[in-house]
Structure formats: C-alpha cells, structure tokens
Amino acid sequence: MKILVCISKTPDTTAKIAFIEGNTKFDESGVQWIINPYDEWYALVRAIELKEKDPATIIHLVTVGGVDAESIIRKALALGGDEAIRIDSTSNDSFTIADQIAQVAKEGVYDLILTGKETIDYNSACIGSMLSALLDLPFISLADHFELNGNTATVKREIESGVETCEVTLPVIVSCQKGMAEQRIPNMRGIMAARTKPLKIVAPAVSSATTNISQFDLPPSKSGVKLIDPENMDELVKLLKEEAKVI
Amino acid sequence: MVLVYIDQADQQIKKASLEALSYGAALAKEIGCASEALVFGTVKDPLADLGKFGAQKVHQLKNETLNSLDVKVHSTLIATVAKNLNATVVVFAHNINGKAIAPAVSVKLGAGIVTGACSLPNTQNGFVVRKTVFSGKAFANIKMETPIKVIAINQNSFGLVEYNSAATIVEIKLDIPPASIKITKVEKIEGEIPLTEANLVVSGGRGLKGPENWGILLDLAKALGAATACSRPVSDTDWRPHHEHVGQTGIQIAPNLYIAIGISGAIQHLAGVNRSKTIVVINKDPEAPFFKAADYGVVGDAFEVVPKLTAAVLKAKAAN
Ligand SMILES: Cc1cc2nc3c(=O)[nH]c(=O)nc-3n(C[C@H](O)[C@H](O)[C@H](O)COP(=O)(O)OP(=O)(O)OC[C@H]3O[C@@H](n4cnc5c(N)ncnc54)[C@H](O)[C@@H]3O)c2cc1C
Question: Using CB atoms, which residue from A13, A126, A214 is nearest to B268?
Fold first, then answer.
C-alpha cells in the first residue's frame, strides 16, 4: 500500500489579508504559515491511521512550492509520513499545480492519493478532480470516512441531500473533509524524526498556466451595526422586512 | 456557445443550477452567442422550463445510471458533449457536484477554470472572472488565457433571472463509460433545507450552552422557514451535526439573512458567513467581535431574546 498525500501551505486562519504591488500580490509580511487544515487534519492524519493499521504502508507527501514551503512539509513529516517531495514551483494556477503533482504520482505509482477538500487561501477545490482527469483514476470528493479492505476502499461522501457510501477499487483519489480523522498534535519524537526524513526536491515539469491572477480586492466594510432594543423584537422584524427586505 | 451543466439530486434540478443557467444566459448575451443547457439522467422537472432561466436548447442524456455522481463518467461525458457542440464556455454551479466535476472537465477540454466565481466576466480586456478567495475575506480577479473556459459559480452570488420563453429539448445518444465507483448505500437527510441553498439561516454558537437548548433556535428557524447552522465548537462537541458547521473550515454560505445567536464572531467563523446580505447578531456581550460585522445587533440574553423574536416573526406572518 502506497499513499500520496497532497500538502499545501496556507496563511494561518487569523492572518491579516492585505495586498501589495497595486493589489497584485498577497502581503506575506508578518504572516504565519500553516499546513492547509484540510490536508493536515483529515488527509494526512487518515493516511497515518491507515499506516498504523498496516505498518507496511508507505506514505509520501507532496507539495508544490518554493523553499519557504519546506518548514511546512517538515511539520507534516513530524505528524507522520515516510518521505516528502517538494516540486520547486510557485505557480498558483490550479492546472499547473495538478499537472506537476500528476507527474510525481505517475512516477511513484500510488494506490491512494489524498487531498484536502480545498485550500483555505484560494478555495479552488480543483486538485483532486484535475488529478482524476490527468491520471484517469476515479475520484471521490468530500469524503468523511475511508476504510480499506484489501484492494477495495469503502468511502462515505457528502452529497446534496445526505451521505452516500461508495465502493471503489484502488487506485483512487479522495478529497477529505471533517469526520475523516481526528486532528493530532505532533510530539517531540515525531519532530525529531522529521528532521532526518528524506525530502526530495524535483524540478517542475514544463506546464503552461491557464489562468493568472490580475488583481485582488477586499470587500467593502460594513457601515456599522444598528442596535435594537432586546425588548422590541417587533422593531427588528419590521427592519428585516422593510429596510433589509430579506424576510 | 455557452453550455451550462444542470445538476440534479433525487431527479430534481438544483436551484444552484438555475442560477448557473441565469449566469450562462447573461454571459452568452454579453459575448453574443447561444446559451444552452446539459442535463444528465432522468430528471422529473419539465426541461422546457429551463427556457425560463435563459436556455435556448436543452441537451439531455437520459440514462438512469447518471442520476448519481461518478466523476470519471460524468466528466468524460460532459467534455465529449462540450466538444461536439463546440462550447466555448462551460458553466457549473460551484456546489457539491460542480466542485467535483468541473475541474476534471476543464482538464479534458484543455480549458482554464475559475471556481467560486462571483460575477460575470469582464471582457473589456481579455476575459477576467472575479472569484472569492481567503474563504470570502477577499476577491481575486482571474485572467483566463485559454480559448475554452470553465466557470463554476458560487451559490447565491448572481441570483435568478427569469425570461418568458421555453427551451427546445434535444436528446443525446452517447455510450456511457463503465462506472468507476459503486454506490452501496444512500442516507438522506430528510426535510431539511440544504444550508448552501437557503435564503435564510439561523445559526447557534457556544453561547447556547448545550444541545438541549437548541429548541429556541429551531423554533425561530421554523417560524422563518430558515435552515440551521452552527459554529465549529458546537459541531466539534457533537451538539449539532457536522454538516451544519460554517466558517473557514466548514462550509461557506451567502444567504440573504444570517442570524447568529451566541456566536462570538471569530475571524474563522466570519470567513464562512461574511458574504451574507444581512447579518443579525444576538449576543449578551456588547464587546463581541461579531457586532462589527453585523447589520443589526441585539445585546441581550439569547434565552430571552430568541423566543421574543420568534413570537414577533409569527405575529408579523399572521398579520400578512
Ligand atoms: C484553524 C482554525 C479554524 C477554525 N475554523 C472555524 C470555522 O470554520 N468555524 C467556526 O465557527 N470556528 C472556527 N474556528 C474556531 C474559532 O476560532 C472560534 O473558536 C469559534 O468560532 C467560537 O465559537 P463560538 O462563537 O460558538 O463560541 P465562543 O467564542 O465561546 O462564543 C460564545 C459567544 O456566546 C455569547 N453568549 C454566551 N452566553 C450567551 C447568552 N446567554 N446569550 C447570548 N449570547 C451568549 C458570548 O458572549 C460569546 O460571544 C477555527 C479555529 C481555528 C484555529
């Protein structure tokens, strides 16, 4: 059993969102970086749990990013995983990123590829689905349970009106969300071990971007809250009806 | 031609797809081409009605096996149809199924993609689509560089536009590729308004103290016809189901009205709800950060305020 977990570096959830260079670039000054929560809490931890059940499992982590992504990938290795691959590209075009990962996936021949359901910075939710097209593999999105039985996986996924259980023969790509695993905190032993785990750097394959960010902007701020007397809920209902026109 | 993929659940067309269709029709008008729809499976709704939302033609691939999602199968078929029809833009709703399929379709078409789009493209200088980023805390304008484009539009970001016309229906015949997954069980959530489609949402936080106190919130939701949501600690402690968790690490919603009860308004929570048109905050702490993001605020004890609000809603409804 060989698992590839896709890891993305994202700003901490409390990071101040601001832009520089004429609003063309995210302002990284003072920003703390974290492993994208969905990648860490659900995809990576589920892979680790599978390895705990079957120690013969091999877990590789892959990230597409510059040198500054290495501290994030080491953090991920401290939680678990056998080795990591950093593809040396700073593209933020989803297709380019998926295309790079697909190259690594083809070479590594994995039984299972796990991603988070989306990243909390660009919220594109593209990589798993794109990998499915690039590698011609089945894709199950928004999974919250994953069990293995030999070469067959049983996966629960969210659908519009509830939850569906699917069976799929490996290899498969799964995007993970809440419920998949319990969040973990790295321990000292993990942190020490991560220092010596192999981190392979590969040059990016040629891939041309299909999209480019031309400019960012921020939503207009609210004009200020109107406070309503807690004894006068008729007033609030009236405002929602007549002023906001939402009920 | 602009081709809009119409999503269904339980053989019913999703509202998000009607919005995607409205968007596709407006886009087709702007770039001067036809707007057509693509429906998979055996849908019960009358398809000619899709004309009301701007589809001139509806292409239908009527096959029962397509009623539930198999990304490999669906994306292959959508890409084939888009190629056969020479679609230049393929539009999806950025909902559960759209998120799963649209990126695969874009790869198969060699098309650039923008997911989470929230406005019509600006075609003055190229083709620039605006999307939400940082979980709703900002927007990015994305220049699409490819001749064929895929756009997945955020729910509740464009609205429904109605026309007075009917669509013609064209049946497509295509071989269905073999299934890549087998669905063994479906568990339905009955009788609830899906959170992402709801116009009105009532949401509760740790301030409600425990699951046994949710009755007052549910009563208000029922009076309004609203869906229910909650903050992360509430779903983490299993006071409420996971699918109600909104925020940066939950789901992101943009209803017309979001009523937050006993929620402090942490930045991660706001990220999931700040695109709501109107926000009402009920919190006993006047310093709660949520008030800064609110349109209307009530400083008071939820256990007193919420039943009063429910009564006021019911009174107003009865008066109508
Ligand atoms: C990486 C990360 C991701 C996160 N993602 C999310 C996310 O997606 N969604 C999310 O919600 N959170 C998220 N959080 C957690 C977030 O930081 C907050 O901890 C959480 O939103 C707080 O939930 P709360 O408002 O229900 O509880 P609290 O912060 O405890 O607030 C309870 C509020 O209730 C009020 N209150 C108490 N009693 C009453 C009463 N009787 N009447 C009226 N008001 C009352 C209090 O004044 C207080 O403001 C995330 C955190 C991290 C670190």
Answer: A13
Beta bridge partners of A164: A157, B186
Number of domain units in chain A:
1
Range of the domain at A35: 2-218
Q: Which two tokens stand for residue B186?
A: 């479906």
State the ipTM, two decimals.
0.95
**Any ligand 1 atom below 6 A from CB of B284:** yes
Q: Write the pLDDT tens digit of every residue in A150-175.
A: 999 999 999 887 899 999 999 999 99
Asked whether the beta carbons of A46 and A145 are under 8 A apart, the reply is no
Q: Give the CATH superfamily of B195-319.
A: TPP-binding domain (3.40.50.1220)
- What is the model's pTM? 0.94
Please report whether residue A174 resides in a domain: yes
B97-152: pLDDT as tens digits: 999 999 999 999 999 999 999 999 999 889 999 999 998 889 999 999 999 999 99
Cα A185 to Cα A200: distance, rounded to the nearest angstrom: 24
CATH 3.40.50.620 domain locations along chain B: 2-171
The answer to the question of residue A231 being in a domain is: no
Cα–Cα distance, B267 to A40 (Å, whole number): 20
The answer, yes or no, to whether any atom of ligand 1 lies below 6 A from the CB of B168, is no
**How many Cα neighbours within 13 Å face the side chain of A90?**
6
For domain B2-171, which architecture applies? 3-Layer(aba) Sandwich (3.40)
